[in-house]
Write a structure and sequence with these properties.
single chain; alpha+beta; Arc Repressor Mutant, subunit A; three-stranded mixed β-sheet; 5 helices; 18% strand; globular
């Protein structure tokens, strides 16, 4: 799961998307890039007590709008956010991959490496994107169950 951040530093990423390089933005990017799962705003709030809720909300919205992160929902309908690939752009995400919800640990994983077949829609339909979800047990939880 290689994200845009692994290829660029955070300041360059903000420059690319014409966003100011602020401490809170850099901290959110660092936290999100360090995780291998999607994360919710409440989870981010719990580890970033120095960033208030409104500021965090605005950062997440700006990052999603600019194509830096994408929104994916967990089994409870809570919005989670994950880093986008470098081919995402403002108002147009290209994160058409499987999102896996673990029913035990409740983590949401972006499974980017799966080769999904192209979708052929009936005449008259124009796709702007899609979201594909699966649920079950992640490898970590499956290993814990087996022990």
């Amino acid at each position: 799961m290689e994200s845009v951040v692994s290829k660029h530093n955070f300041e360059e990423l903000l420059d690319k998307h014409h966003l100011k390089k602020t401490g809170p933005r850099l901290k959110v990017l660092s936290m999100m890039a360090s995780k291998n799962t999607a994360t919710s705003q409440p989870d981010l709030e719990s580890v970033m007590s120095d960033i208030d809720r409104v500021t965090l909300y605005r950062i997440l919205n700006a990052f999603e709008k600019k194509g830096i992160i994408h929104k994916v929902f967990d089994l409870n309908g809570t919005a989670n956010y994950a880093m986008c690939h470098s081919n995402c752009e403002e108002h147009h995400h290209h994160d058409e991959h499987l999102h896996f919800n673990c029913t035990i640990c409740k983590n949401v994983y972006c499974l980017d490496d799966l080769n999904l077949p192209p979708l052929k829609l009936p005449d008259g339909f124009k796709m702007e994107g899609f979201t594909l979800y699966a649920n079950g047990t992640c490898p970590k939880c499956a290993g814990a169950i087996a022990k």
